[in-house]
Amino acid sequence: MLPDPTVIAENLIDTINKHEGKIHAFTQYNPEQIRRDAAYLSAGPLAGMSVGVKDIVETEAYFTEYGSGIYKNNQSRADAACVTLLKQAGALVAGKTVTTEFAFFQPGPTVNPYDTTRTPGGSSSGSAAAVACGMVDIGIASQTAASLTRPASYCGIVGFKPSYARYNAAGVKYLAPSFDALGVVTRDVTSAIKADNVLKGPKSASVELPLQKPKRIGFCKTPWWSQGDADMHQALQSAADLFGQHTSLDEVDLADFEEGADLHLTIMSYEAAQSLAWEYTAKREQISPQIAALIKAGQAITRQDYEEALAKAQNLRQKADILFETYDVILAPAAPGVAPLLEEGTGSPLFSRLWTLLYLPSLTLPGMVNKAGLPIGVQFLGRYGADEALLSYGLWAEQILPDRPLCSG
Amino acid sequence: MLPDPTVIAENLIDTINKHEGKIHAFTQYNPEQIRRDAAYLSAGPLAGMSVGVKDIVETEAYFTEYGSGIYKNNQSRADAACVTLLKQAGALVAGKTVTTEFAFFQPGPTVNPYDTTRTPGGSSSGSAAAVACGMVDIGIASQTAASLTRPASYCGIVGFKPSYARYNAAGVKYLAPSFDALGVVTRDVTSAIKADNVLKGPKSASVELPLQKPKRIGFCKTPWWSQGDADMHQALQSAADLFGQHTSLDEVDLADFEEGADLHLTIMSYEAAQSLAWEYTAKREQISPQIAALIKAGQAITRQDYEEALAKAQNLRQKADILFETYDVILAPAAPGVAPLLEEGTGSPLFSRLWTLLYLPSLTLPGMVNKAGLPIGVQFLGRYGADEALLSYGLWAEQILPDRPLCSG
Fold first, then answer.
1. For B5-199, CATH number?
2. Among residues 172-201 of chain B, which lie with CB inside 8 Å of chain A?
3. A258: three-class secondary structure by DSSP
4. Domain A1-254+319-409 class?
5. Is A170–B173 a contact, with Cβ atoms under 8 angstroms apart?
6. How far apart are CA A319 and CA A325, in angstroms?
7. What residues of chain B lie within 8 A of the CB of A177, using their CB?
8. What was the ipTM of the complex prediction?
9. Where would I find the beta strands (DSSP E) of A177-309?
10. Closest to B332 (Cα-Cα) out of B227, B222, B198
11. What pLDDT digit, counting tens, does each position of A172-227 carry?
12. CA distance A168 to chain B (A)
């Protein structure tokens, strides 16, 4: 049954008004637009759930600015496919959420709801922060390197980056099309399942996934373990210990995947130099030094090196697939530690590069914290294409992990 | 050395003015814009070559309307990546060329330069017609089913649809992202090579490909041969005979690939229902019956059927790759016959569905005609990822095939 649209709209507006002055999760939101949309809410599987739309995704009712002054007041005529699907299913769009510039590193104004001196992570900064303090139920997010997993980890929420190309990205700005993937951030796995069910197809029959215990978990510290800090090491080891009390868990060494992080960087840089060719050529004075450096790096890569990286990536994907004959899920770090201070940037993508390269579905799960109570996510990786299974394992893991601290906002 | 920009601009404007009133290849072109752009022409590998941009590709200087009234006067802020790369390399944009509605079936006003009572083919109608009568040197085109190969065949020009995802599609409208591929139409293979060299990367070092004779050609009549007409049968057999006089050629039976055409239709319909969700939902009264039917068909496909089709497609791709251990190129029909009359639509995509599904690079070559002198292209398919080799074989084939009739325009 459809909840009262007026109540939904006013609750949403109140919650945003309560937090937004401090968090700065939105680039735009408009109470009148929310009320208008609420009046037409449909009784679908997401009826009444609120959505924040990362501002690299086109919308009819709001500007789409990509975190860049080049696109100030840039108005699209249409809603992106993902926005249309969510609205059709009964979701209510709250507004556009802050992205770093072109979903890369240059941060926007959003702060971390757990500690406003810290970054929410990037690039899906606003969606993650808005979900963490309860402003929206679903944040549309995206990932080219670690742009979903990292903010989910830093903000103590669930992040679901599905298998590559699972969601249609029509109306979403390109960064590196070999990796660009839409996903969602939510407060629990059930909400991610609901959103997934809608985003994965034109039809949105309601499907409930069963909680499922993975038979065997591979705990992968990754070749970059030593580049994580003590907080992360302890959080991951504690999570592994917890899971290991309930199912089979052993360490898996992926030393022969180490090259994956560099391959990811090569492919991403090469493709970004194409995707942002216009901005770099016609609007150079308005792009950040980070974007300029990315494009210059991409332009320095030869086509041959790029194609070799693509071929090696494809080989690694085949090797990864075999791994899942042994393990139902891989447990791995989601980020090097807790959210860095704002002045230090949006954090390192290192711990996601390999998984993004491999196209694997990734589920970041909250619950672990450091001594100061700051969240550190843990990451579950599933087999390519087996997104439902990963989400089912996520329901199980959610029961095992500690109750997460409520965010004061 | 850079040719005189004024001469280039005025020649281009004169040629367009000579043909456009009859051919209707452009949705917009603006002599003042052409003169302005010419003044800033850079001395790159495409210096002075003129380009028509299919109107599903965003441009800063012209509206982008996707062949649909929904997007009348729709203004993008940026040039698409492909447009920027071509301009950087010294090409001069002539204007936007007619596309069918959303690159599907509903035709625009363009007619075939060889017979104005006939279709130029779709969806890259304007780019193909503009190239055929010499209005532009390079037409940006795209293909999701047969939208590049078919118009190239009907208009008696070269069509190069590269391996899937070879060119960055940032700023290009989605139809079915599993297949959507940018490509080019030109009057000769050398021009396609020049354009390819620029579009494939952020850097555009000038590379010359050698003419190369394929050691062995597989002539594939395809499982749909009987759905082609006598004109096509004769053109293909004649081309095969010609090639066979110079190299090894034998028939290859791909009966076990027949399912590919249906798999293509399943995947395309499912994804189109997502890509065009906003247009179908918010602007239903402004879409054609063909688009509405496509989306309804896509909505009727289950996620399970879609995923099974994706998996089967992947298997066929692996089988196709093995084929190229025996054959350097596959020779196949490009379309069922010559261009149909305008009232019959833009022609059937049947003869390209399989190859598009397989991600293979495709080169359509002119030279064959029916008794009335209307062009019928022949199609060369290369190994996935081996685009340069295919273009090299194309240089060879171009020498073997009859001189094409000049288009009166």
1. 3.90.1300.10
2. 173-174, 177-178, 200-201
3. coil
4. alpha beta
5. yes
6. 11
7. 165, 168-170
8. 0.96
9. 181-186, 216-219, 248-251
10. B222
11. 999 999 999 999 999 999 999 999 999 998 876 667 899 999 999 999 999 999 99
12. 7
